[in-house]
Amino acid sequence: MSPSKPSATPTSIHQRSPRELAITWADGVESVFDVRALRLACGCASCVDEWTGDERIDADSVPEDVRPVSIESVGRYAIQIHWSDDHSTGIYPFERLRELGTPAAPAKPGD
Q1: pLDDT, tens digit (0-9, with 9 covering 90-100), for 85-106
Q2: CATH fold of the domain at 6-103
Q3: Spatial contact of 23 and 8, defined as CB atoms under 8 Å apart
């Protein structure tokens, strides 16, 4: 797989708060993800039917306090998150993360 577009290339990935993961992209935009919503957006074959695209994941089976335990790079195009609920088969391509992310509110003067 080829490298991501510059706008979908992260320069920083960090836990912003207990419930938020933040990615700063090469163009300076920061996307913020609710960690449980990110876990529920997993696109692996266990969570999404490969043939139909139907979701297989039962949201009720994902703990409210799920969190990333570790994050690993997958080439130059994605990350793999190991979750506190022992799920770790999903790969999150940078371009998909860029689409899913909510841009962080700009800092206010004096912050």
Answers
A1: 999 999 999 999 999 987 665 5
A2: NE0471 N-terminal domain-like (3.30.2020)
A3: no
